[in-house]
Specification:
Number of strands: 6
CATH class: Alpha Beta
Shape: globular
Largest sheet: 4 strands, mixed
Radius of gyration: 18 Å
Structural class: alpha+beta
Helix content: 40-55%
CATH topology: Glutaredoxin
Strand order of the largest sheet: 2-1-3-4
CATH superfamily: Glutaredoxin
CATH architecture: 3-Layer(aba) Sandwich
Low-confidence stretches: none
Number of helices: 9
């Protein structure tokens, strides 16, 4: 079902890292649920750059363990263990995070274009095994996004657009309100860190431990969309039916 483009669609703020499988699952769930309902939701992406927090690239063995666990639980994601050459594995996702921020500019793509680019970058990393640290790859993905002007994005990145925003968001994310990747916020006081997931870590992931997903309730996304529809009705900005 093609989502309806409302004049003022609801906005969800999503703090995340593109290299975080948990965030990629949550964003896929929200987008898929909105598409199934034929509704549009705008996602305002904010960077939660794990490599800046941890002062190192996110270890591949941790990402691999989470990809196997989440990909097996939700096969519709289409994820696979990395099978491209090892030297093509991105050691940084900061260029991709910066591009998503740069794409927010109205002349580049706005929130719609930025979200399309974010989704494309995640698919390229988890399913297609492309090196999303490389600007040429980022721009190739931008070319596939209907609402992104890839040439405008290229010019913006050449000026350094997006880098300041990523670092400002990193500093903001060090406060107590934002608990990790992913963390979602929306009108009506909605706030949820890693929604829908019930999980534990069986030991230290840096020293042989594993993540274990006990349950994933995708219904969180529908509940969020319902609450946003109700919020719009109550403030008079939307129709009475979602």
């Amino acid at each position: 079902m093609t989502p309806v483009r409302d004049a003022q669609p609801p906005v969800v703020t999503a703090w995340s890292d593109i290299g975080c499988p948990w965030a990629s699952l949550a964003l896929h769930t929200l987008r898929a649920t909105a598409a199934e309902r034929g509704r549009e939701v705008l996602i305002d992406h904010r960077a939660f750059p794990l490599e800046l927090f941890n002062r190192q690239p996110t270890p591949k063995h941790i990402v691999d363990a989470e990809v196997v666990m989440l990909g097996a639980h939700r096969p519709e994601l289409g994820w696979r263990l990395w099978d491209a050459p090892a030297w093509e594995y991105p050691s940084s996702v900061l260029p991709a995070l910066e591009a998503v921020q740069a794409a927010k500019a109205p002349e580049v793509g706005g929130l719609r274009g930025s979200d399309q680019l974010d989704a494309g970058l995640r698919k390229a990393f988890y399913a297609e095994h492309r090196c999303i640290a490389i600007h040429s790859v980022i721009l190739d993905i931008a070319e596939t996004c209907p609402d992104v002007d890839a040439r405008a994005l290229e010019a913006a990145l050449a000026r350094g657009a997006g880098r300041r925003e990523v670092y400002e968001q990193w500093h903001e994310a060090q406060g107590p309100q934002i608990q990790g990747s992913p963390h979602f916020f929306a009108d009506g006081g909605y706030a949820a860190h890693n929604p829908g997931a019930t999980y534990v870590f069986t030991g230290d992931l840096y020293n042989g431990g594993f993540p274990r997903l006990d349950h994933y309730d995708a219904g969180w996304a529908g509940a969020l969309l319902d609450s946003l529809a109700a919020e719009r009705v109550s403030d008079g900005s939307g129709p009475e039916t979602a």
